Amino acid sequence: MSAPAEPVPATAPADGPPAAPPGGPAAASAAGAATAPPARPDRRTRAARTTGTLLFALAALWALNTVLRTAFSGRWWLWNGVDLAPPLAYLAVPLVLLVPALPLRRLRRTTLLLLALALLLGAGQAGVHPGALLRDRPPVPAGALHVVTWNTFFWHQDSDPERFYTYLRDQNADIYLLQEYQNARGDRPAPIDDLARIRAAFPGYRIATEGAFLTLSRHPITLTRALRPAGLPEPDTDWPDYWNIRALRTDVSVGGRTLSLYNTHLPDLLNVDRNPLTPAYYHALDEHAHRRLLHFRELRADLDANSHPVVLGGDLNTLPGSEDLRWFRGLRDTAESGTDLYPATFPAGPAAAWRLDWTFASPDIDIHRQTLDDPPGGLSTHRLIDLRLSLPPPPSARPDGARPAPAHPKAQP
Predict the structure, then answer these.
(1) CA distance 304 to 223
(2) How far is CA 3 from the centre of its chain?
(3) For the chain, what is the HEC assignment?
(4) How many CA atoms are closer than 13 Å to the CA of 202, on its beta-carbon side?
(5) pTM of the prediction?
(6) What is the C-alpha separation between 297 and 303, in angstroms, rounded?
(7) Which pLDDT score is estimated for 49?
(8) Structure confidence by residue, pLDDT tens digits, 47-68
(9) Is the pLDDT of residue 384 over 60?
(10) In the list 82, 171, 219, 245, which could disulfide-bond 211, CB 3.0-4.6 Å?
């Protein structure tokens, strides 16, 4: 009797399908799922993640820049070399980034919080006047005083003199506050004497001039004083008055009372011609800031000692939102009576992005209108500011003949 044959395991034919594992098709699916590699994110998912990360980074950087500007503009001299963005960007950039950030999922909440912070702080830095959208242009009352202020940009050195004087005469202003009554020799300011032509172009006007300032008035001039701070650094050129005089006060008699006019051009924030990778750049930045501080103090001291109504105008080289504006507290920014939503003055023309030129007035002066005018091409890089205003009536004299104290004393910064 032979032994029983050994059982032979069943095998699938070489060309047939593999045998199903025990447990059937469901078990096979489970086993395959356990061993399959995780699915890779598709291209659209990766792009969304990259976009979310990029928007977060941009929002964080801009929020940091806005916080630093709020903290340091007008307070720390080194910031003057960094603060170059047009003020309107502090409102526009968060709004632009907000649009693509809303539909994202990745980092959306954090990104939106950063943009909200930047927008909240930036609204006060942008120099926008929303009230201008609601303000109409009522007729200017008869007898209103017409004042213009303009940085002429080296007078008419690089333009046709007749064209230059025609533009000035066409303003038909009662008072002109003109800066950069000067020329340039290379990169150095140079004094000029164009008084004969000025008298011929403006017959009957009184003239006050010191340094690089020229004030013209149809009304009698009762006082002219150049403000020269003590302790200034040695001038950088052989024309000391250019550096040492940065405000010219001229008092005029209008309708029985005195109006004090401050024709102003404060030192630049920085010298764009220097290389920021060299020590000379930072030395010049520090020196400019020191000069500005001394001129601010001298100007503020004169304002505080002055009981007359004041109109102050010129190229202040000061940006909206800067703490440098503290030196003008107690005076009114006349752009609040203008119809320009964004009263930028530099560079002249439709591309104006920075507000460097300002006008301020005592609170009791009635500002009827402020407008900006673009000079013909080639005359200046600055817009002209045009003001129409009325002075308060003269204060009644006390029995002892003295004038009462002004109703709006100018606060110290």
Answers:
(1) 17
(2) 107
(3) CCCCCCCCCCCCCCCCCCCCCCCHHHHHHHHHHHHCCCCCCCHHHHHHHHHHHHHHHHHHHHHHHHHHHHHHCCCCHHHHHCCCCCCCHHHHHHHHHHHHHCCCCCCHHHHHHHHHHHHHHHCCCCCCCHHHHCCCCCCCCCCCEEEEEEECCCCCCCCCHHHHHHHHHHHCCCEEEEECCCEEECCEEECCCCHHHHHHHCCCCEEEEECCEEEEECCCEEEEEECCCCCCCCCCCCCHHHHHCCEEEEEEEECCEEEEEEEEECCCCCCCCCCCCCHHHHHHHHHHHHHHHHHHHHHHHHHHCCCCCEEEEEECCCCCCCHHHHHHCCCEEHHHHECCCCCCCECCCCCCCECCEEEEECCCCEEEEEEEECCCCCCCCCCEEEEEEECCCCCCCCCCCCCCCCCCCCCCC
(4) 24
(5) 0.85
(6) 10
(7) 87
(8) 888 889 999 999 999 999 999 9
(9) yes
(10) 245
Q: Give yes or no for a contact between 256 and 293, defined as CB atoms under 8 angstroms apart.
A: no
Angle between helix axes 43-72 and 108-122 (nearest 10 degrees) is: 30
Mean pLDDT estimate for the chain: 88
User: What value does the mean pLDDT take over residues 318-342?
Assistant: 96
Tokens of residue 78, six digits:
């080194």
Cβ-contact 368, 379 below 8 angstroms = no
Q: Which residue has the tokens 């919080």?
A: 113
Cα–chain center distance at 282: 22
